[in-house]
Amino acid sequence: METNLEKAQRINLILLQEIDRVCKKYRLNYYLICGGLLGAVRHHGFIPWDDDVDIAMTRKDYETLRKIAKDEWKDSDFIFVRHNDMKHGAWLDFFDRLVYMKEAVPLKTFEKIRGKGRKDIDNHVPLDIYVLDHAPDDEKKFRRMYLAIQGLYGLAMGHRAYVDFTEYEKQDPRLQKQIKALVYCGKWIPLCLIEFVYEKICRLYENTPGNDYFTSNGFIFCIPMRHKREWFAETTELNIYEHKFKCPKMYEEYLTFFYKDYMQLPPEDKRKPDHVIM
């Protein structure tokens, strides 16, 4: 019998094949990143215990995908879910997602909006889409930019059904207090206003590219990370099982930045899925 992890991985492959199909149709670039890229390089498939998959797109290609998504996936097994479309004033994060709706898997992915946000996507496997926005070369300007986005992230967290502050217990105590204050204040600020300001800040340097990208819609502590534009200047194709998907041509540099000795397996107690309920 298929386990929940095996089912999630099978659906992840379906999602990757679908995003690959649509991107080829509209001549858009995407890049397999994070655990999906590591799995392709180290395992020539998924990491055996990994249960999700992520891609990145430049702002230009992402905006095109966003515009064609509604018509492309109308009346299909997939829906494209915007980060500001969690319904009923709920907010999860700044990711857009392609969600596979044909099968359900017990997941923790959407638990932070349960009881408040939309119910249709709960327990359905998503593919997360990171946006590569331009980071200014001036470090002071970039610092102001990412601090503003992190602040907006904290405010938007006030619109979750609940917030798990234990996620931040390893952070500096002062930072933990700041996050709690942002969450409390965010409850009283309209989510549409937070989203509007967020979109404006992310695109501040859209027409003045520098040497780096950053993932403006990433997890709150990942936003300050700079990604060299040269890593994404060209693509190559790597296998996940017998299927080929686009990856940064300089994937070794990317993986070394994130994982250091990326061919080394983690300790056994770390080899477990993050989202699937086993």
UniProtKB/TrEMBL annotation:
Annotated LicD/FKTN/FKRP nucleotidyltransferase domain residues: 23-260
Alphabetized Pfam families for the sequence: LicD
Superkingdom of origin organism: Bacteria
An example Gene Ontology biological process: glycoprotein metabolic process
PANTHER family listed in its UniProt record: LIPOPOLYSACCHARIDE CHOLINEPHOSPHOTRANSFERASE LICD
Name of the protein: LicD/FKTN/FKRP nucleotidyltransferase domain-containing protein
Species: Eubacterium plexicaudatum ASF492
